[in-house]
Amino acid sequence: MKLAIVVPVAPFEPEEILLQSVRCLKELEFDGEKKILYVVDRNGKEDRRAELLRREGVEVLERNNTRGKRAGAINDGLKYLRSFKPEFVAIFDVDSKPEKNFLIENVKELIKCEKAYISSSPRRIYNAVNLVSKTVELEYHLLNYLIKKNGYKQFNGLIGVLRAKFLYEYGLNECAITEDADFSTRMHAMGYKAIYCDKSVLHEQSPLSWKEFYYQRKRWYFGGLQLWRYRELVKKSRKEFKYSWYLALTITYIPVLILPFLPILPLLILAKFRNLKKLIAVPGFVVYSLVLQSAALSAVVSYLRKRNVEWKAARRTA
Q1: What pLDDT is stored for residue 67 in this prediction?
Q2: Which end of the chain is more exposed for a tag (fewer CB within 10 A), N or C?
Q3: Residue 195 to residue 189: CA distance in whole angstroms
């Protein structure tokens, strides 16, 4: 059994985060042959990140452009790996810290279901250091629950383990702002499934300021609007997915609807965490819903005016 790990690296990603990433991924357990590939978009002639990664014993594909952004990097990585002939491809971001059993448990789930194109696990925030990140930490617990119950399981970034044959056959859309949601929509609409595996956990980082959070979510909202191009394809799909997809592309654009439920939030937080310090997320959720609403409206305006959105760099914590 062969598995390839692909990690796209944007020009702005710092060296220390890359080193943390590669050391984490090298420790992942897997019952078979494993190859780790970092696809690095170079940041000028003085960029030494590829050299540092090679010293860590992983393979590196360098790109002198940012064609297709993350989708382009993954597509190029797949071409590079074609001779390796992997059965499974795991995709991670540079801030991803999967538990050691992540690959083994998610591959097991894919083997159980031939119609599954991806399997992934609950997400957790590991840089909950301020109001923004602590609020997003709480949001992730809600999102994990919704993904588990939802007919449209969309794992942000396609971070998880995928069947290689589907990636090679359908590829990522390099024109889509959110290539992960684009691919997920196409796969679900064709009758394939996404598996939620709760036998492992994936840790990742949150935006550290409301400005970073705003630009991240504006891009997500804009990408969601692009998905309406698939409405005719979705109409012919199974009901469970179809209704969840429509809800995801409508109700989530009115996040202020959560404000009336904030009075019960402290009780939910205490029941979940049994930690008074987590209550800081209560005022955070007020700001959260307002920033989200602003991002949603801005994305709609940009979409209607046919103005693309920028991919903003996010700070990382070591």
Answers
A1: 95
A2: C
A3: 15
Three-class SS of residue 3? strand
> Under a CB-based contact definition with an 8 Å cutoff, are residues 50 and 62 in contact?
yes
* pLDDT tens-place string over residues 241-254: 999 999 999 999 99
Looking at 171-264, list the stretches that DSSP marks H as alpha helix, in order from N- to C-terminal side. Answer: 179-189, 210-226, 231-235, 239-248
Give residue 49's pLDDT.
97
Q: What is the DSSP string of 114-157?
A: TTEEEEE--EEES---SHHHHHHHHHHHHHHHHHHH-SS---GG
Residue closest to 207 by CA, chosen among 196, 198, 197, 217: 217
How far is it, in rounded angstroms, from Cα 38 to Cα 17? 13
Task: With 0.90 as the threshold, say if the pTM is over it.
Answer: yes
Q: How confident is the model at residue 191 (pLDDT cuts 50, 70, 90)?
A: very high
Q: What is the 3-state secondary structure (H, E, C) of 162-180?
A: EEHHHHHHHCCCCCCCCHH
- Identify the bridge partners of residue 204 per DSSP, sorted by sequence position: 125
Task: Name the token pair of 72.
Answer: 């382009």
